[in-house]
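Journal club side-thread
Mid-discussion, someone asked how the predicted structure for our own chain would compare to the paper's figures. Pasting it here so we can look after the session.
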Amino acid sequence: MWRSLGEMSTLWLNDFVRGVAALKMGRMILNAAAYLAGEDAAIHGFFERLRSDARFAGLRVKYSRSRSQPFARLKVKVKREIISFRRDDASPLGGRAPDVAPSALARWLAQGHDDAGRRVVLLDTRNRQEVEYGTFAGAMTLPIDRFTDLPAAVEAHRDALADATVVSFCTGGIRCEKAALWMQEAGMDNVLQLDGGILGYFEQVGGQGYEGRCFVFDERVALDPELRPLVDAA
C-alpha cells in the first residue's frame, strides 16, 4: 500500500533508526519500502517491535534467504517519493492494487486464460537491463531504462492491453503495484499485480512459465527459480 510519510517522518525517528541499526546491514528508505538483512532473530524482533505500534500493525513483510550478507553496509534515508514517475498525475497514494496469488497465476498460465476465460497479458514493469536476466515466457516487456519511462511506454500499448486481464509484475511487488494503481487511474480495466512479485512466485510456485533468472539489487546479482544466487559470496 502506498501512503505519504506524513507523521511517520517525525515518528520517534531516532529510536526507529537505532532499532534498524541493530540489524547491521540493509537499505531503508523511509517512504514505502525497505530492504533489510540480518539474522532471523534480529529481523523478526525488529518487525515485532515495529508492528507493536498500531500505525504499522498491518505492515506487509516479504522474506528471502541468503547464505551471505547481501549488503555491504547500512543506509537509512528519508525521501519524498521512491520509484517515482516524476509526474503529478502518476503518483497514486492511499490504496493497494488488487492482486493475483502466484498459485492462481500459475493456473492461468497453464490453462491459457484467467478463471473468467479472459486472455492474460503479463506486463513486466522492470527495466531492460533486468529483463535480460529473465522474465515470464510471452510477457510484454517495455523498452525502458528507468521507472519514470513506464507511463509513456504503457500508453503506447494501451490497445494491446484492452479486453485482457493484465498482470503487472516486478522483482518483489513494489514497482508493479505502483504501476497497476497508475494504470487503473489512467482508465485501464482488469489490471492486477502479482502478489509478492517474481520472488514471491519463485517461493510459492517455482519456475513454472518463467525463463531465466530474476535480477536483484544486491551482491547476489540474480536468483534462479530455486532462489539460488548467481553470485554466492559465502
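Post-session note: The first strand starts at residue 25 and ends at 30.
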